[in-house]
Design goal:
Layout lengths: L3 E5 L4 H11 L2 E2 L2 E5 L5 E5 L7 E5 L6 H17 L3 E5 L19 H11 L2 E7 L14 E4 L2 H11 L6 E4 L5 H11 L2 E4 L2 E3 L6 E3 L11 E8 L3 H12 L5 E8 L5 H8 L3 E5 L7 E3 L2 H12 L1
Parallel strand pairs: 1-2, 1-5, 5-6, 6-7, 7-8, 9-10, 9-13, 13-14, 14-15, 15-16
Antiparallel strand pairs: 3-4, 11-12
The structure holds ribose-5-phosphate.
Ribose-5-phosphate binds next to strand 13 and helix 6.
């Protein structure tokens, strides 16, 4: 048995179990309860004194509830004398890492502050929306990239014709370039404009006709799917062949998955940072590796 204990939160039981297996670590005995009014309750049963405990809790929707569960769990573990390491595969609120409009709260800054206050000693997430976000944490915070896993999956599973790697927005330029480098592809990014008040998304761009060329759309997350749908419509109009989409975090709210497929995407591939029908890539080995490296 290793020095670690793993505490799978109610949002990530499978990932927690897989990580425990990969690290040869024991699982912390916990009870979770959700009251009819949607308040959460956590009960710690195991003895965790002087143990390093990795808490695994992804904060996909309902994000506020999952964040509260993370707070409760980490606070109790810390109170009982554990060193708490939080693994939050999908970190909610990471997109609000700036005051885009005057008066907006930098939600990620508040979250970072609260995570510290519940006793978390380090945080690991996957593909944080922007590396700028890590600057809000006053304790060690890391983001590991699933881009190599996504690239490897595409290499093994798709035979694409002269594919172009494409980010649906300029903000994803580094990400798509990293993906493209791994597969030796050309890459580009679209000019996506999101109305800061209504949330409406439009593509204000022009590209040369793709003449049947296949496209891999690369993004960090798919939430409503609107960005991917708009990009797909734009690409089809400009002569794209097959279109597949890869992302790290598949929130896929409501009908997003179907709507994306209906818009013309052949397949959506994501990691299991969030459970979803698209979550085909297991991040466990990458995460386990991160913790093993920390231990050295
Ligand atoms: C935006 O900057 C992100 O990288 C994603 O493109 C965006 O959050 C996806 O949201 P939705 O699926 O709702 O368009």
């Amino acid at each position: 048995m290793s020095d670690w204990l793993v505490a799978p939160g109610p949002a990530s039981p499978e990932l927690g179990e897989k990580l425990a297996k990969a690290l040869n670590a024991e699982i912390v005995d916990l009870e979770f309860r959700l009251f009819p009014d949607a308040e959460s309750k956590v009960r710690l049963i195991s003895d965790v004194r002087n143990k390093k405990v990795i808490v695994v809790q992804s904060t996909y929707p309902p994000a506020d509830m999952r964040i509260m569960q993370l707070f409760l769990l980490c606070h109790k573990l810390s109170e009982e004398g554990a060193e708490v390491l939080a693994l939050v595969p999908y970190l909610a609120y990471a997109r609000q890492d700036r005051e885009f409009q005057k008066g907006e709260v930098i939600s990620l800054g508040v979250l970072a502050h609260l995570l510290r206050s519940v006793g978390i000693k380090s945080l690991l997430t996957i593909d944080i929306h922007s590396s700028r976000g890590l600057g809000y944490f006053s304790f060690p915070a890391y983001s590991v990239s699933a881009i190599p896993l996504l690239a490897e999956h595409v290499r093994k599973n798709f035979e694409l014709s002269n594919p172009l790697a494409l980010s649906p927005d300029y903000g994803g330029q580094n990400r798509v370039q990293a993906f493209a480098r791994l597969l030796n592809l050309e890459s580009t990014a679209l000019k996506k404009v999101r109305d800061r008040v209504t949330g409406e998304v439009t593509i204000e761009d022009s590209i040369p006709n793709l003449n049947g060329r296949d496209v891999v759309i690369v993004d960090d997350m798919i939430s409503t799917g609107t960005s991917i749908q708009r990009a797909t419509k734009f690409l089809k109009k400009n002569g794209a062949g097959r279109i597949i989409t890869v992302c790290t975090h598949a929130l896929l709210l409501g009908n997003a998955h179907n709507d994306i497929l209906t818009a013309g995407v052949e397949e959506v591939v994501a990691t299991n940072s969030i459970p979803s029908p698209a979550s085909k890539i297991d991040v466990t080995p990458m995460i386990a590796n991160h913790y093993r490296t920390l231990e050295r």
